[in-house]
Design a protein that fits this description.
Elements lengths: L1 H4 L6 H6 L6 H8 L2 H7 L4 H11 L7 E3 L15 E3 L16 E6 H7 L4 H4 L6 E5 L5 E5 L7 E5 L2 E2 L21 E6 L3 H4 L6 E6 L12 E9 L4 E12 L2 E12 L15 E13 L3 E15 L6 E17 L7 E17 L2 E21 L3 E18 L7 E16 L2 E15 L7 E15 L3 E12 L3 H5 L1 E4 L4 E4 L7 E12 L5 E25 L4 E3 L8 E27 L4 E15 L4 E2 L7 E9 L5 E10 L15 E14 L3 E10 L23 E9 L1
Parallel strand pairs: 6-9, 24-28
Antiparallel strand pairs: 1-2, 3-8, 4-5, 6-7, 8-9, 10-11, 10-35, 11-12, 12-13, 13-14, 14-15, 15-16, 16-17, 17-18, 18-19, 19-20, 20-21, 21-22, 22-25, 23-24, 25-26, 26-27, 26-28, 28-29, 29-30, 29-31, 31-32, 32-33, 33-34, 34-35
């Protein structure tokens, strides 16, 4: 216990100065008093059983049974086994969340996990992928891209460079996730100013929170024909007394992707390795644990001959929970991590540009309950990082960034009504040396109400006011950005984006027809848009000129400017059970989404917005779940409202199918053979949300075959 009991005089400024090289002992000591450890670590048996039911990490189902409206009039849920959203600290049922939520977990996630996060979620309503070949797929929510969608690993931000360029990959592999939750709409209240468009939370088991009754494991092997990709996923869990351990890893190797018809997407091959080892100590009042992880990813950039990106990341993560710490608080949750990220852009094998992003972050949550009607959570979030670019395309300066925030969310249950109020105060500062040192203070507020109509229908209304601080590219960019094919200019004088949002929701969840409808309107003051100036950068003279000279090589100049903007749209889902017999069950799911964004004062459309989409999916299951499958079709309509200087994107049709057969049992483990087809119509699919849609279309028809063993 020496490591945990070492409490030094480490200050926040000292931690910032050593961001990315942070000693884990100092971070633990600053966040976790020895008294917490002593209180948490006791006889493990009672709490371990509760932890297993609370965590639900086996398959990521996170389900619980709940009762009808009680005698006291409190709004409870119907007597159904329903989905709990774990991204929100209150762990609320999905049906009673006014904010739109997508959940991908269990067998559905295992069957449809792709090599990128964006592709994995691309059939979810309101979610698209901004792709740059088969190695890069960044989630886009309601038309908001990487700079306004916060990608989290178990509610903690991931420090990478995915928001800096369209050819930069997210350093999360869906193959290692047990559950993925997507919050559509402003989520700055709980997670920070980078979440003004939404949140993608990838939940995994890197730090185990319960001990299995015996050793368990998963080994999976896949092969994809479109990219000739071979992937291997391994996950092992074990426990002994007070201790639980977890080991996981993934390896992917792919060739250049086949395109619809003849031909391949040149320079789109890649290789990726990712893995971690974690352990936890369990007690009767809580648990604590840590994990060490590392990854490397090397892939080619389509459209850039001889250009490759090489990513390396290492991290240490820490989690702890103490039940009933004091007063009305149900628990004390602590999450912290420190990471070292480096991305090198190689040109013919030589390093042309590199980005390093080293930092730490910490989050503390205190859920509380006052009687049966009033629940809430209060929390603190801290982070610091050092960003250091170098090389010929280092178009932003070195910058140190720090942020601190406090947030509170409270809900009140009154009969058929559920009311929620919340607020967040966040301050962030950037030190870019001669580039400037802007500081931004953001206040985010939200209020929502949900009313239960009958037994299975819910109507909701939410209002929110969110603030977003501009990122480093928007503030300080000044140089060639070949990943986008432009010359990018920032503005250190940019202020906060301030979004006022209105959303209405309808939910129906029961044993029959289920449905969901969300409609939203957002007005954003000082929305930061990257727009063409009409000028070009002459690479031969290294000067910005009005037009490109004859025979010259030029890049269009884009500047980040603050313009008011309006966003509106909605998503619709409907589930209908077609067959519920003793020999077969079949369900039909219909879905559609639309998102529009317009700049004020006649400046035109917001760039790279998706077109309308609609589709259907058939799910079927043989009794006992031994044989399952689905068939899904989605139509993406033509993007008729491109942004300034952009061209329209043609409509496309996507057809995919999957089937899985499981066999085996006690003593032999469970084996699953599965197959999945993507882009079965072999269409030329180009994502309107992607900067590189003209040079990097989606791969052509593919068949993926796999075998999974579980014991």
């Amino acid at each position: 216990m020496t490591l945990f009991n070492t409490i030094g005089d480490t200050t926040l400024s000292e931690l910032r100065g050593a961001a990315g090289r942070l000693v884990f002992r100092a971070l633990l000591a600053a966040l976790l008093p020895a008294a917490l450890l002593g209180a948490a670590c006791g006889p493990p048996a009672a709490w371990a059983a509760e932890a297993g039911s609370r965590a639900g990490v086996d398959g990521g189902e996170h389900r619980q049974a709940v009762g009808e409206e009680g005698d006291n009039g409190v709004l409870l849920h119907d007597p159904l086994v329903e989905e709990i959203v774990v991204t929100a600290p209150l762990h609320r049922a999905r049906r009673t969340s006014v904010q739109a939520v997508n959940v991908l977990a269990g067998e559905a996630l295992r069957q449809h996990a792709a090599s990128t996060l964006g592709e994995t979620l691309s059939f979810q309503p309101g979610v698209q992928s901004s792709s740059a070949g088969p190695s890069v797929g960044v989630p886009v929510i309601r038309g908001h891209g990487a700079d306004r969608v916060l990608v989290l690993r178990d509610s903690q931000p991931v420090f990478d460079a995915s928001a800096l360029g369209p050819d930069h990959a997210v350093v999360l592999d869906p193959g290692l996730a047990s559950r993925i939750e997507v919050l559509r709409g402003p989520s700055t209240l709980l997670f920070g100013s980078g979440a003004i468009g939404g949140v993608v939370n990838v939940i995994d088991s890197r730090v185990p929170d319960h001990a299995p009754p015996g050793p368990t494991g998963i080994l999976e092997q896949r092969h994809d024909t479109a990219t000739d990709e071979n992937s291997t996923v391994l996950s092992l869990d074990a426990g002994e007394g007070r201790w639980a351990t977890h080991l996981e890893g993934v390896y992917r190797a792919r060739d250049a992707a086949s395109l619809p018809g003849p031909g391949v997407l040149a320079n789109s091959d890649g290789r990726q390795r990712d893995g971690s080892v974690g352990f936890s100590r369990l007690g009767d009042r809580g648990w604590l644990g840590m994990a060490l992880s590392g990854m490397d990813n090397n892939y080619g950039v389509p459209g850039e001959h001889g250009v490759r990106i090489d990513i390396a990341r290492s991290a240490v993560e820490f989690k702890a929970e103490l039940l009933e710490p004091f007063g009305h608080f149900e628990s004390l949750r602590v999450k912290a991590s420190a990471s070292d990220f480096e991305q090198r852009e190689l040109e013919d094998g030589q390093v042309g540009t590199s980005f390093s992003n080293r930092g730490w972050q910490a989050r503390i949550e205190l859920p509380q309950q006052h009687g049966e009607h009033w629940h809430g959570v209060v929390g603190v979030q801290l982070s610091a990082r050092e960003f250091q670019p170098s090389g010929e395309e280092a178009f932003i300066p070195d910058a140190d960034t720090s942020a601190a925030a406090i947030f509170v969310v409270e809900d009140l249950h009154l009969g058929r009504w559920l009311f929620e109020l919340g607020g967040r105060l966040e301050t962030s500062a950037v030190d870019a040396g001669a580039g400037g040192d802007p500081r931004h203070d953001a206040v985010s507020l939200s209020a929502s109400a949900m009313y239960r109509v009958g037994s299975i229908d819910y109507l909701g209304l939410s209002l929110s006011r969110s603030g977003r601080a501009p990122n480093l590219v928007e503030l300080f960019a000044d140089g060639e950005h070949h990943g986008k094919g432009i010359y990018s200019k920032g503005d250190p004088g940019l202020g906060l984006e301030k979004a006022s949002s209105l959303e209405i929701a309808w939910r129906r969840e029961g044993r029959g027809v289920t449905g969901e409808l969300n409609a939203y309107y957002n007005h954003v003051d000082d929305y930061v848009a990257e727009l063409a100036t009409g000028e070009v950068f002459d690479e031969s003279s290294s000067a910005i000129v009005g037009s490109c000279p004859p025979g010259g090589e030029c890049l269009p100049v884009f500047a980040h400017v603050a313009e008011d903007a309006n966003f509106y749209g909605g998503e619709f889902q409907l589930g209908v059970p077609l067959v519920s017999g003793s020999t077969l069950s079949v369900d039909l799911h219909l879905f559609a989404d639309i998102a529009r964004g317009r700049l004020a004062d006649g400046r035109g459309e917001v760039p790279r917005m998706p077109g309308p989409r609609w589709g259907a999916r058939l799910d079927w299951t043989h009794p006992g779940g031994r044989l399952t499958g689905d068939l899904a079709a989605m139509r993406s309509e033509e993007q008729r409202h491109p942004g300034p200087g952009e061209s329209q994107t043609a409509a496309s049709n996507r057809l995919r199918a999957s089937v899985a057969f499981s066999f085996g049992g006690a003593g032999t483990g469970q084996w699953t053979v599965f197959a999945r087809g993507r882009n079965l119509l072999d269409e030329d699919i180009r994502d309107p949300t992607s900067f590189l849609r003209d040079v990097a279309p989606a791969p052509g028809r593919s068949l993926e075959l796999g075998l999974r063993a579980e014991y």
